[in-house]
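Can't attach files on this board, so I'm pasting raw text. These are the components:
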Amino acid sequence: MNNESLKGHLDFLLLSVLANGAAHGYAVIESLRQQSGGHFDLPEGTIYPALHRLEAQDLLKSYWQENAPRRRRVYELTSKGQKVLAQRREEWQAFSKAVNATAGI
Amino acid sequence: MNNESLKGHLDFLLLSVLANGAAHGYAVIESLRQQSGGHFDLPEGTIYPALHRLEAQDLLKSYWQENAPRRRRVYELTSKGQKVLAQRREEWQAFSKAVNATAGI
DNA sequence: TCTTGACACATAGTATTACAAGGCTTAGAA
DNA sequence: TTCTAAGCCTTGTAATACTATGTGTCAAGA
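---
Top answer:
C-alpha cells for the assembled complex are below.
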C-alpha cells in the first residue's frame, strides 16, 4: 500500500494481471484492486511508467485501440513476457517461502 | 537476493531474527542465511545500515559486548520493536495473501 | 614469518523504484 | 453548462538495498 513493500514485485503483479488477457492501463488498475481484494489500489503514476518499462523490456506490447469511446492503449503479454512471468512466479514463491521460514511462519 | 524484491521487507526479517534473541550484526547475517535456507545471503553493507536505522527508530537497542574475543555490537528488540514486529508480521501476511490472490496462487 | 581468510564493524556513493503532483483530453450525467 | 469519471502522460522526490572500500583482529597454514 503506502509503504515500500511493493518494490520489486510490481512487475510480477502487472504480468499476472495481463496473463488473464490484454487490457489498457486503467483497467489494469481496476483488476489489481479487485483481484487483490482491495489491497492494491495503485495510482496512475505508478502503473503507467511500469507498463512503459515492461514494454521497453519486450515483456509487453501495446497498441492504440480503435473504435473505442475514449483513446486507450491496450497492453498484452509477449511470448518473452510469458516466460518471464513464469520465472517471476517461481521467484516470488521462493521469496515468500524464505520470508515465512525466516519469520517462523 | 540480487534484485529489488527485498525492499520494504528487510526490517521485518531483521526484527524476526532478533525476536529469537539478541545478536550482533555478523550473527544476524548468519541467522538470516540459515533460517531462510540460504536464500538471504545479504552483504554487510545491507545489514549494518539497516540495524542502525532500526535503532534510530527505537525498535532496537544495542551495546558493545565486553569480554568477547572480538569487539561486537549486540542488538536486541525493544518493547516498541516487539509491537512493530507483530504489526509487520500482519502486514506481510496481508501483502503475500494479496499477491497470491492477484497472481492466482 | 607471512599470508590468507574468517570475523566484525563502518560509511560514502549509486541505481532503482514506487509514488506524489501536476497536466491534458473526452464522454456522459446532472 | 458544469461536473465527474475515464483515460493517458511526465517530472521530480524520497526511500532503499547494495557496491565498494576501509578499518582492525585472530587463527591457521604455507
